[in-house]
Amino acid sequence: MSDRIEVPASETGVVRLFAVDLPADEIEDFADFEREGALMISALGVYDLNPSCVEIFPVAQLDDMGLANYLIEAYSIDPADLKDDRTFLNNIRGHVALVSSGAFRGKAQTLRPYHPLRWLGTWSEPRPQLDLSPIPSDAARDTLGTTGPAERPRFPRWLGWVLPLAGIVLGTLIYLLSPHNG
Fold first, then answer.
1. With a cut of 70, which residues of the chain have pLDDT below it?
2. pLDDT score at 104
3. pLDDT at 37
4. Average model confidence (pLDDT) across the chain
5. Residues paired with residue 99 on neighbouring β-strands, in sequence order
6. What sign does the CA torsion over 18, 23, 24, 26 have?
7. How many CB atoms lie within 10 A of CB 82?
8. Residue 163: is it exposed, middle or buried by C-beta count within 10 angstroms (0-12/13-18/19+)?
9. Segment 66-72 long-range contacts (CB within 8 Å, at least 24 positions apart)
10. CA-CA distance, 77 to 13, in Å (whole number)?
11. How many angstroms separate the CA atoms of 104 and 107, rounded?
12. What pLDDT score was predicted for residue 127?
């Protein structure tokens, strides 16, 4: 039995790295999400996985870039977060699986990775610092919160009841003056 990894609901900006301990000729079947009982999903011990947020590839495919630089470039991981792991990451051989937060479709799940997966690490994208200070533009001043006096209606209110009443009187007069049998 291996470790459990908790994925909270609505997690964003996290990438998990797993070694895929399989011979190269078995990787294609392992990575086939269309296959019944998809092996990757089973090996993670989850019930649902978005395949568009999972990458499975041979580390050798990265050539001189290395896995650490790939995480920095492709997943925006802060280089300072990888400082202690750089040598470890760049010495990984074989196939790896990168599973980003979107793979879990915003649902809380517990990962229970089994053979052939072996968890290697988890990193987060840097969260942007939000600047919530007031906007220094004249166009943005007094647009929320302060409202002036209500604008007077352009149409006099008394017309709202006089016009329908005049229509009723006119209609009654036409009815009474018209010749009809009755």
1. 1-2, 36-37, 138-148, 153, 181-182
2. 93
3. 59
4. 86
5. 16, 54
6. negative
7. 19
8. exposed
9. 66/90, 67/17, 67/92, 67/96, 71/15, 71/17, 71/98, 71/123
10. 9
11. 6
12. 76
The pLDDT of residue 110 is 93
Give pTM, 2 decimals.
0.68
Q: Nearest CA to 44 among 6, 92, 90, 88?
A: 6
The predicted pLDDT at position 1 comes to 42
In degrees, rounded to 5, the angle at the alpha carbon of residue 181 between the alpha carbons of residues 178 and 182 is: 105
Task: Write the DSSP string, the chain.
Answer: ----EEE-TT--SEEEEEEE-S-HHHHHHHT-TTSTT-HHHHHHT-S---GGGEEEEEGGGGTTSHHHHHHHHHH---GGGGTTTHHHHHT--SEEEEEEGGGGTT--EEE---TTEEEEEEEEPPPPPP--SPP--GGGTTSSS---PPPPPSS-TTHHHHHHHHHHHHHHHHHHHS----
Q: For residue 10, what pLDDT is reported?
A: 85
Instruction: For residue 104, count other CB atoms closer than 10 A to its CB.
Output: 23
Nearest to residue 3, comparing CAs of 122, 89, 87, 84?
122
State CA 54 to chain mean position distance: 15
The whole-number pLDDT of residue 66 equals 92
